[in-house]
Amino acid sequence: MKNIPNHLGIILDGNRRWAKEKNLPVFEGHKKGMEKVKKIIKACKKRGIKVLTLFVFSTENWKRTKKEINYLMDLIKSIKDIAEFDKYGIRVIIIGQRDRLYRDVQKAIKDVENRTKNNKAMILNIALSYGGRAEIVEAIKNIIKKKISLKKINEDVISKNLWTSDLDLIIRTGKEKRISNFLIWQAAYSEIFFFDKYWPDFTEKELDKALNEYSNHLRRFGK
């Protein structure tokens, strides 16, 4: 491919519907989804993507049942056991409202961030308790705290106070066609590909299809 996106964002959707259509417990869908996460991270690294952001748990997901949230938090804790992050030189950064996460999850996050902080091969942003609007609110708060004058506030200042950089490409699985509050500032000029597959069924073949279409597409940025 002649033009690989620098920053790829993936909305991992469809774990629950995948399980229900197979008459399996919802938790099996989330388990399969986490297995797929590990494979796709490696695939993105292999293809030369420098920044990968995975939308794992949204601010709206807190509305789910306590039982399901507890299971998801346990899955997220397993992040600290993924040795591949170090092995492949991947730096892990968590973006989102950390203070809402369970304390043991916060500890696991801190551990894996410290462990991988010097890695430079790829940045892996994991969006947990994340919402695009909440991110913009936090950016505004940071700007106010820094006492930046009104005259100096522009798009560049706002971008620098966000949790991550501009997106080149968004992939969404799960048969829905919306971005669901995912990196809404950064996605202003990103290409978007929707797949009629649930996340557990997403493969490297679909990844390559999106990357190839992106590679052959002329981005005009409004020009």
CATH C-level class is Alpha Beta
Strands in their spatial order, largest beta sheet: 3-4-2-1-5-6
Anisotropy-based shape: globular
Percent strand:
15-25%
Helix/strand structural class: alpha/beta
Q: Give the tally of structural domains.
A: 1
Residue share in helix:
40-55%
Q: Please count the helical segments.
A: 8
CATH topology: Undecaprenyl pyrophosphate synthetase
Main beta sheet: 6 strands, parallel
Question: What value does the Rg take, in angstroms?
Answer: 17 Å
Task: Give the integer mean of the pLDDT values.
Answer: 93
CATH homologous superfamily title? Decaprenyl diphosphate synthase-like
Q: Tally the beta strands.
A: 6
Structure description:
The protein is 40% helix and 16% strand. It has 223 residues and is an alpha/beta fold. It has one domain: Undecaprenyl pyrophosphate synthetase, CATH 3.40.1180.10. Strands 3-4-2-1-5-6 form a six-stranded parallel β-sheet, with helices on both faces. Helix 5 (103-116) links the parallel strand 3 (90-95) and strand 4 (122-130). Helix 1 packs across helix 2 (26-46), helix 2 packs parallel to helix 3 and helix 3 (66-77) runs parallel beside helix 5. The longest helix has 21 residues, at 26-46. The model has no long low-confidence stretch (mean pLDDT 93).
